[in-house]
Amino acid sequence: MVDFPGYSLPGAAASFLFVLLTMKQSEHFRVIGPAHGILARVGEDALLTCQLFPKRSAEHMEVRWYRSEPGTHVLLAHQDGAEVSEVQTEEYRGRVEWVEDDLAEGSVALKMHNIRPSDDGQYWCRFQEGHYCGETSLLLQVAGLGSAPHIHMAGSMEGEIQLVCTAEGWFPEPRVHWEDSRGERLLTLYEHHIPDEDGLFHVEATLVVRIASADTVSCSIHNPVLAEEKGAVLSIPEKLQTELASLKVIGPSQPLLVRVGEDIQLTCCLSPEANAQSMEVRWVRARRYPAVYVYMDGDHVSAEQMAEYRGRTVLVTDAISEGRLTLQIHDARTSDDGQYRCLFEKDGVYQENTLDVKIVGLGSSPRITAEGPVDGEMRLLCSSAGWFPQPRVQWRDPEGKPVPSFSQALAQGSDGLFQVEAFLQVTNSSAGNVTCSVSNPLLGEERMATFFLSDSRMTFSWKILFLLGLPVVVVVGLIQMKSFSKVNETLDPNTAHPELTPLEGRKRGTHGQSCNQTSHRDLTAYSVLQARRENRDLESGNTGPSLSNKQGNGNLIRLTMEGFTSGRCYWEVDTEGTDEWTLGIFEEPADSGGLQFRVLEKKGCDYRALTCCLQAISLAERLLIEKCPQKIVIFLDCEDGDISFYNMTAGTHIFSFTQPSFSGSLCPFKLESVELSPSAQY
Predict the structure, then answer these.
(1) Within a 10 A sphere around the Cβ of 525, how many other Cβ atoms?
(2) Structure confidence at residue 666 as a pLDDT band (50, 70, 90)
(3) Are strands 407-412 and 526-528 parallel, antiparallel or unpaired?
């Protein structure tokens, strides 16, 4: 082995490897493109270029132009002097071409014809040689200078004039501004940019001016990319002298009720009568464009029609010389529901009228199916489909009295029609029947079905789920309860509060029963003699103690004689016409401790939920109740440790007290003048 002074073998190997890497790196390249974005107008051609650096031949490389990924959205691929057409994206076929540039110097170009708004964005130029590739991005900015604006003026109303500036064919979204005759900017009331099928924007800008100060106004539309604009000027005094300024458009004063599948008849006419043959007449929804239907120069302008109305509209022009036109919309759909505007326009002045269309659908007859019985309970399902708008569902017992659903679900199909499902829980089935009715709130029509139960004794106990506000299967409120029985205890005249008086004609039950052992028909209803209490309070000047004021319980009125330690029950309490009240449930602990109160309190318009004893408040939560309850239901579930309050006026949950368990006997009570509803018989 030969040694070289000052060099070692490992050092020589490292130097040799560095030389190889340097030589390999020198064979690599970079791709460069234009320093600035490429600007192209809609309908014109654009040239995209890129270049290898340092310059070298690209004749044997693959060159590819693409948008997002090299393997997708490919504009053009070129390899070994030929185009690779099988990888080209469909929307670019016939619109792009390879421009023979100086491949020997690594320079390539791509020409794109008939530029569209969808072509706006970033592009990539990619060179690949073997396993090595380089690429660069280019920004193509597309701009379209649309039509000159046109100013439409509505006939004067209450001293004001509404002006609408419209234009089409702009890209990207333009800027709109109004100016008066002195060149001062005016505040735009509304501005809308609506893309058409080609991606170009239709512009609508609305201005309201007072007639007293009305003179000349101008509307300008500016393209931010091209820095160019177009404008229009309108002389208001001159337009006020035209024919239409003195006319009105009238139509139906009441909403049009149209069943799904039938035809809609939208009739508008000029008042006083005037020939509308030379006028532009359009029916629109929220905006002028796109329209439901446009009549202009004696013909239908299909280019401005909304896609969902194409092939469904016919214009009846028999009385056009009298200024009367009717638009027929065939095969009414739920999406046709809402407001329409009818506009007559001539010489830049228009008058309009609004028509209200209510689409209604009377669904199928309800179908009732049963599940069970399981553990003595039967579950009934009432289902019906084809309704619009949202239907109302109601269960009724054998006596025709309303029964709340166990749960209710609403679903809206792709056709906009609603399907409803309502459940009812029935226990201890006996002879009788239940009825489910589904009604349309606009038609005042309903469909009904009846289900006949078996022959043993029947009582209803309900598991209540309030499913509120279901626009498209959206559950706003959910309150879940167990099985409850409505309780009305027998009063003992010797122990009950003197203001609680038994109602006559009811059977008396035994004392000390748990909630779930109490039969509806074996209980006596009772009421509070509200007038007696109010008279006594007026004479004494006493307004009744409030738990929140930590006062004594001398005026506390028990609503049952015996407390409850098990079961599930509820009480209905009428609060109509009472400005202040406190009601709830108090607990008498088994260890002889002080009373514990869980109550709902009302003082004027303020509501609170309180947990307290006679000496201190452990919880005080303010509640927002928008609709003053006329009747409140108190639910007690001893097993689940739940005390809940419900506003039966609005059908909503108010508040719940929950805890693992109760330690003593529970008894409902009230302070102030309230009336306990009589027992409902089922």
Answers:
(1) 19
(2) confident
(3) unpaired
- Topology at the third CATH level for domain 30-143: Immunoglobulin-like (2.60.40)
Which pLDDT score, from 0 to 100, does residue 52 have? 94
Residue 669 and residue 559: Cα distance in Å, rounded? Answer: 5
* pLDDT score for 180: 93
Same fold, 30-143 and 367-453: yes
Structure confidence by residue, pLDDT tens digits, 209-218: 988 777 899 9
CB-CB contact of 318 with 338 (8 Å):
no
Beta sheet of 228-235, edge-to-edge order? 185-186, 175-180, 216-223, 228-235
449 vs 549 pLDDT, higher one: 449
- What pTM was computed for the model? 0.57
**Helix residue ranges per DSSP H, 461-554:** 530-540
- Name the phi and psi angles at 9, rounded to 5: -65, -45
Token match 């408040």: residue? 617
Distances (CA, A) of 179 to 186, 236, 322, 428: 5, 13, 38, 78
Pairing between β-strand 201-210 and β-strand 160-170 as defined by DSSP bridges = antiparallel
Q: How many helices (H) and strands (E) does the chain have?
A: 3, 50
Neighbouring CB atoms inside 10 A of 215's CB total 12
User: Residue 592: its pLDDT value, please?
Assistant: 61
C-alpha to C-alpha distance for 76 and 92, rounded to whole angstroms: 8
Distance from CA of residue 304 to its chain's centroid?
Answer: 28
What burial class does residue 540 get, using C-beta atoms within 10 Å of its C-beta: 0-12 exposed, 13-18 middle, 19+ buried?
Answer: exposed
Residue 519 predicted with pLDDT over 50: no
- H helices of 236-370, in order, are 236-239
Tally of CB atoms within 10 A around 281:
25
**What six digits make up the tokens of 118?**
């969808």
* pLDDT > 90: percent of the chain: 45
- Domain 487-676, architecture per CATH: Sandwich (2.60)
CATH match of 150-241 with 2.60.40.10:
yes
Q: Which helix (H) or strand (E) holds 578?
A: none
Cα 179 from Cα 184, distance rounded (Å): 5
Sign, Cα dihedral of 53, 58, 62, 67: positive
How do residues 450-493 score in pLDDT, each as one tens digit? 887 753 333 333 333 332 332 332 222 323 333 344 443 333 33
Q: How far apart are CA 154 and CA 475, in angstroms?
A: 44
Query: What does the pLDDT read at residue 322?
Result: 95
Domain 367-453 fold is Immunoglobulin-like (2.60.40)
